[in-house]
Amino acid sequence: MGGRTGDGAEVVHMVSGPPADDRALGQTRAMEQRSPVTVSAPGRHTGRPRTLSARTVDAIAAAAGELLGLVVPVECAACGAPDTPLCATCTRRLRALTARPGRVEAHAPALVEASGRVLLPAVSAGPYRNELSLAVLAFKAHGSAALAEELAAALGRALQAAAGAAGTGTLLVPVPTSSSAYLRRGFDPLRLLMARVRREGRLPVKALWVEALKPRPKRLGDHATSLATRVLGTGEGSQKGLGRSQRRSRVAGSLEVRNRVRVLGQGSGVPRKPQAQGRNAVRGRHCIVVDDVLTTGATAREAARALEAAGAVVVGVVTLAYVPLPETASSDSPGTLPADIQRSEANGG
Question: What is the pTM of this model?
Fold first, then answer.
């Protein structure tokens, strides 16, 4: 069963209705033939209005970008057009790629069993290709405010589409960046996007953006594995080039719930001034894992494992982009599944 917003637009429900049977779930590989899900236009689910301070921050960031452009040449992340981080044509194309968030777990082997049974539902803004992939890569490298504006809008649409039936007080839990990636970039790209989503009032109604996960400190065996990975040439911080089993092995046990869970943002309808709480704050709460790009789903499963170990009820994952499987990579649209697919058997996995 789906739902509709105030303007009649349909939304994806991650946790409504009974679990689907195996025959329905076995249709996941035919997703591309289904109609994409439509969601409400940006800003329909609004939180608090943008404050003067938020607008001032954006203005300062834009001015700093223009000043930097005088010293360092700026070009479109997608087509290379000069003097703009993302030209008008590529902006239109990126918006078209992310206009219809949809269910994409069938593209992530770690989220679906061989029988077709869904382990963790996933919603994504669009396919990781063309203007979207190039914009994501450029943003993660440089943190451009102009790119953040477009990518945050796309992420906000996906969050709103996914959180429709998750209930009051759903926790949006981003996957934290690794220590090595943070040291390399100097910032956390996903956190910057979530902050922009919050400032622009794009958080789902009655949802809370929380900082609940952190990288687990490495042990002696982890360092040995990391050294072996570098020797094999796959790099310490990136999972590019790794197979499915390698990705699962690499992220297994890599995350844990923080001792103090911090609320960083809230959608409209949530009581003001929520307090930071201990790790028990996630116990019994519906959680949606948030990440930038969905590939095999190994990272999302690890985040779900860590949250569930602390007593959370993980109802799905939302990403900015997903990597289409080779046989469906020619399509730009994510598919949809029956809306009554939910977290399998009361989160039993």
Answer: 0.72
